[in-house]
Write a structure and sequence with these properties.
Blueprint: E1 3-8, E2 14-18, E3 25-29, E4 32-37, E5 43-45, E6 55-56, E7 69-72, E8 77-81, E9 86-88, E10 92-100, E11 118-127, E12 131-135, E13 153-155, E14 158-160, E15 238-240, E16 247-249, E17 311-317, E18 326-330, E19 333-338, E20 342-345
Parallel strand pairs: 1-3, 6-7
Antiparallel strand pairs: 1-2, 3-4, 4-5, 7-8, 8-9, 10-11, 10-17, 12-13, 12-20, 13-14, 15-16, 17-19, 18-19
Length: 346
């Protein structure tokens, strides 16, 4: 038998005690046992409901005793004091991510800069309380001679490869997340290779110093090759809705106009337009899209466009758990957007 204390709401109501000598204690509500405590002080919760823990912020943690357990509203996690420190019992949660590298820059008489590599995914598990470095890659530099490739973006072991620089006068495009377009000159120069799963190759130039150069590769398509009358357009990027709306990222840069050939358009997703023959500079890729820079025309004094900087976006369902970046919400998700390097703490 068991000594039972029953909180009854029938009859005379109040507490009804039934005692025996077993040393076992049962607590009941309206005749249903909710808690049993045996002679070894083991506590059994018999309910199909839930146990509500004390709730408070990190600043409100009590004077700690080993074995304490509470819900930390700052961390949004259950924590226990293990004798040394308060440790979160929730070891991890999953997030969606977008990581885009910086786009490639362009030079004079050049193809378009390649877009930065673009990586998306979901169900990436992060450890609660862990600080993750976020690197947002800068775009490559446009130049009056030869542009430079962009810079990688990195988050939680995920690396988006920088966009390749365009080929300038008499040079091939550089490989990257997406490759840069081939530069002007005979016998024609290839576009740089893209990285599988991140982007595409740049377009080739036509094959003469007097004809079109190649567009930079984009995340969604290769750059267009130059022809006898046109310089190539940048490859289109890809869309992501991780920010709460559909946005294009990682478009390739358009190629510069050569000796009267039409300049190439920038690829949708931040790619810069190539410079018009006669003195126009290439247009820079759009910041925080990873777009490639537009190629400079082969007129004296023109400059290729800079590559657009990259971006890192982290999203997860429910209310805010992590910290870092610009925090917004959409569609029941919390979104952390990094337009510059920083730290995300899960």
């Amino acid at each position: 038998m068991t000594t039972t204390i029953n909180a009854s709401n029938s009859g005379s109501g109040g507490l009804v005690q039934t005692a025996d000598a077993s040393g076992i204690l049962a607590l009941q509500t309206t005749g249903t046992t909710a808690v049993t405590i045996d002679t070894s002080q083991n506590v059994t919760l018999n309910s199909t409901g839930a146990l509500t823990l004390p709730v408070g912020t990190t600043a409100q943690q009590p004077t700690a005793v080993t074995g304490m357990i509470r819900f930390n509203s700052t961390k949004t996690a259950v924590e226990e004091y293990n004798g040394t420190y308060w440790a979160s019992l929730l070891t991890g949660y999953t997030v969606n991510y977008l990581v885009v590298a910086g786009g490639g820059g362009a030079g004079i008489a050049s193809g378009g800069g390649g877009a930065g590599g673009m990586l998306t995914g979901n169900a990436l598990t992060l450890a609660v309380g862990t600080a993750y470095a976020v690197t947002v890659g800068a775009g490559g530099t446009g130049s009056i001679t030869v542009g430079t490739s962009g810079n990688n973006s990195v988050f939680a072991g995920i690396t988006a490869i920088a966009g390749g620089a365009s080929g300038s006068s008499a040079s091939a495009g550089t490989a990257g997340g997406s490759g840069g377009g081939g530069g002007a000159g005979a016998p024609g120069f290839a576009g740089g290779a893209g990285t599988a799963g991140q982007g595409n190759a740049g377009g080739a130039s036509f094959g003469s110093a007097n004809f079109g150069t190649g567009g930079g590769g984009g995340a969604g398509a290769v750059g267009t090759a130059g022809t006898s009358s046109t310089s190539g357009a940048g490859g289109v990027g890809l869309t992501s809705s991780i920010s709460g709306s559909s946005v294009y990222y990682a478009g390739g840069g358009g190629a510069g106009g050569i000796n009267g050939t039409t300049n190439g358009a920038g690829g949708t997703g931040g790619g810069g337009t190539g410079g018009v023959f006669g003195g126009a500079n290439g247009v820079s890729g759009t910041a925080n899209t990873g777009g490639g820079g537009g190629g400079g025309a082969n007129s004296g004094g023109t400059t290729g466009g800079n590559g657009g900087s990259g971006v890192v976006i982290i999203s997860y369902a429910g209310s805010q758990r992590g910290t870092g970046g610009t925090v917004t919400s959409s569609g029941g998700n919390t979104i952390h957007t990094f337009t510059s390097s920083g730290t995300y703490t899960a």
